[in-house]
């Protein structure tokens, strides 16, 4: 098991918490078609917060539960900074959580 798994799991919980605090957590999943997007961050079918909840968090949970290799890179913060450029204060907690996630992913290199 990768030594970062515990810290990453905690960070994923913080990301979820921030989505919930901001009201960016959906109770109803997007359509199966929307989840099949092949575009980065599913920009053609999902809002960024939906992608975080339904794609990113789900994939990372699967990786951790199955003890699979972690991604070799992460640029989620860059996308969040673009998406939330007009809401810098409101998105600060989420952006900080995503920044820490990115740092944990690249930390082993």
UniProtKB/TrEMBL annotation:
Residues 8-104 form the YqcC-like domain. SUPFAM superfamilies: YqcC-like (SSF158452). InterPro entries: UCP006257, YqcC-like_dom, YqcC-like_sf. Pfam families: DUF446. It comes from the Bacteria. This is YqcC family protein. It comes from Pseudomonas quebecensis.
């Amino acid at each position: 098991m990768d030594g970062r798994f515990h810290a990453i799991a905690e960070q994923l919980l913080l990301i979820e918490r921030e989505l919930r605090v901001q009201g960016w957590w959906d109770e109803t999943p997007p359509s199966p078609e929307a989840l099949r997007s092949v575009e980065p961050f599913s920009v053609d079918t999902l809002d960024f917060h939906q992608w975080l909840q339904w794609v990113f968090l789900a994939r990372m949970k699967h990786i951790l539960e199955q003890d699979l290799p972690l991604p070799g890179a992460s640029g989620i913060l860059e996308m969040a900074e673009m998406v939330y450029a007009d809401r810098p204060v409101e998105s600060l907690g989420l952006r900080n959580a995503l920044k820490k996630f990115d740092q944990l992913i690249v930390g082993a290199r």
